[in-house]
């Protein structure tokens, strides 16, 4: 059985929806933070594919996205020796635990979830899974007795629900779950859109020129950076309020090279925007091409299947034990 390093004692768990495209913003703002955290925590990372199907999905695309996302995370530096990375639907105990929890979750409490209210108000034809989704998320979390759940602020309410569900269950049936703490991840460096640098770079941006995706080819990455909106000062200076375009490019370089903004300003004193953009394009393509090289080595490898099969086994064992304990506590046995 795979073991975490003895040095780390506290554990975390993160679920990522397989939405298909990872942007430079996701990489700099979120994935690099996860890579840093893997040395401090025992970490479970899973592709939340059963959460993804709460809204309609194309099965062929979904399948591709799931595998591709695991490969991309590994290519970005998530180390399979330090993390247990797995696919949620490969572990049937998440859904089993979720059902037992659903039968212990008041309807009213679920009705108060703001994400549900928001999503259901936009489309009247939604499915029951969209409503019960936070209970599945509670099952994901509670199955592993983790200490912390790192999430963005939009998921805080769901983690609090998981805590409530766990506390209520423990009170009713006796000690069963560890109560996890929510760990609000600090906004990492915010990367803004290359066309409209006052907006966050987003997967769902209308203009593809503003967004760099980790699987974009080199020529189009360079083209997008060379075409990035700047200003007419001809001054390479970090000033997000007055010079959002240049400041965004400086931010990207700071995140990828480890240099400070003032080091970059000094390096480019007296140089023009074209020269600076060429440098940014070199920095970004070097990083992304490295990721892509690893991605292509991993995506069709037996190694990827081996990691996923092994981690499905490991996590099934843990979640099964929790499920059996819950069943027993609830009187579901012969
Ligand atoms: P999303 O793509 O909105 O599902 O976000 C996934 C993760 O990536 C979250 O932790 C976001 O905060 C982070 N993220 C998304 N876009 C950016 C961006 N443009 N700059 C920095 N972080 C981002
Ligand atoms: N709901 C989360 C999102 O949409 C993904 C997720 C599913 C998750 N299960 C989780 C996050 C458990 C943290 C812990 O981003």
- How far apart the termini lie comes to 30 Å
Largest sheet, described in full?
3 strands, parallel
CATH architecture of the largest domain: 3-Layer(aba) Sandwich
The CATH topology of the largest domain corresponds to Rossmann fold
Shape: elongated
The helix-and-strand class reads mainly alpha
Q: Could you tell me which ligands this complex binds, including any ions or cofactors? A: adenosine monophosphate, tryptophan
Number of strands: 5
- The mean pLDDT is 94
Q: Spans of 5+ residues with little confidence (pLDDT < 50)?
A: none
CATH superfamily of the largest domain: HUPs
Strand content: 5-15%
Strand order of the largest sheet: 1-2-3
CATH class label of the largest domain? Alpha Beta
Structure, explained:
With 334 residues, the chain is mainly α. It has 2 domains: 11-189 and 302-330, HUPs (Rossmann fold, 3-Layer(aba) Sandwich), CATH 3.40.50; 208-295, Tyrosyl-Transfer RNA Synthetase. The chain has helices at 24-37, 49-52, 59-75, 93-102, 107-111, 114-122, 128-142, 156-173, 218-226, 244-257, 261-267, 273-299, 302-330; strands at 11-16, 42-47, 83-87, 148-151, 181-184. α4 (93-102) packs across α7 (128-142), α4 (93-102) packs parallel to α13 (302-330) and α7 (128-142) packs across α8. The two termini are 30 Å apart.
């Amino acid at each position: 059985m795979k073991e975490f390093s003895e040095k780390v004692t506290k554990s975390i768990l993160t679920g990522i929806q397989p939405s298909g495209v990872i942007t430079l913003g996701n990489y700099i703002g979120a994935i690099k933070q996860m890579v840093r955290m893997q040395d401090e925590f025992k970490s479970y990372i899973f592709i939340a594919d059963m959460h993804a199907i709460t809204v309609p999905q194309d099965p062929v695309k979904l399948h591709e996205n799931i595998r591709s996302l695991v490969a991309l995370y590994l290519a970005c530096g998530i180390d399979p020796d330090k993390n247990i990375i797995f696919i949620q639907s490969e572990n049937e105990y998440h859904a089993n635990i979720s059902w037992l929890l659903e039968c212990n979750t008041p309807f009213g409490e679920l009705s108060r979830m703001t994400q549900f209210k928001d999503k259901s108000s936009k489309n009247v034809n939604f499915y029951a899974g969209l409503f019960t989704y936070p209970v599945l998320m509670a099952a994901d979390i509670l199955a592993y007795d983790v200490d912390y759940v790192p999430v963005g602020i939009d998921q805080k309410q769901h983690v609090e629900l998981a805590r409530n569900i766990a506390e209520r269950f423990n009170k009713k049936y006796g000690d069963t779950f560890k109560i996890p703490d929510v760990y609000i991840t600090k906004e990492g460096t915010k990367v803004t859109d290359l066309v409209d640098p006052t907006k966050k770079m987003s997967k769902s941006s209308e203009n593809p020129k503003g967004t760099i995706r980790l699987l974009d080819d080199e020529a189009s990455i360079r083209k997008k950076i060379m075409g990035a909106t700047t200003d007419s000062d001809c001054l390479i200076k970090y000033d997000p309020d007055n010079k959002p375009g240049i400041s965004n490019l400086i931010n990207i370089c700071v995140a990828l090279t480890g240099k400070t903004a003032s080091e970059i300003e000094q390096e480019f004193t007296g140089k023009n925007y074209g020269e600076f953009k060429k440098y940014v394009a070199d920095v970004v393509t070097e990083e992304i091409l490295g990721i892509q090289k690893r991605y292509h080595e991993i995506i069709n490898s037996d190694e990827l299947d081996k990691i996923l099969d092994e981690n499905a086994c490991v996590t099934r064992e843990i979640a099964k034990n929790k499920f059996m304990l819950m069943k027993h506590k609830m009187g579901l046995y012969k």
